[in-house]
Amino acid sequence: MSDKFVPVVKAEEAEEEELVDPQQSLREECSQKPDAQNMWAKYQECNDRVNSRSKTAETCEEELIDYVHVLDKCVTKDLFKRLK
Hints:
The structure is a single chain. With 84 residues, the chain is an all-alpha fold. It contains 3 helices and no strands. It starts with 21 loop residues before the first helix and ends with a helix. It is found in: Mitochondrion inner membrane.
């Protein structure tokens, strides 16, 4: 039998940069803007109203969708510029 030479490769132990989701950071930034704050306040107002009643068919789906729409509109302006 012939001895086979099997090379051993050791990876360098360099610290990896922690990945940050640019969409998440942009959403945090956009949530501080006046338009988003206004929509969030409307959503919270609706949520408080619904939670104060025991029997209601009202949901805050429309307010939540409006809030997320404002956030997404703000995020899409810069999101693709930040992707690598």
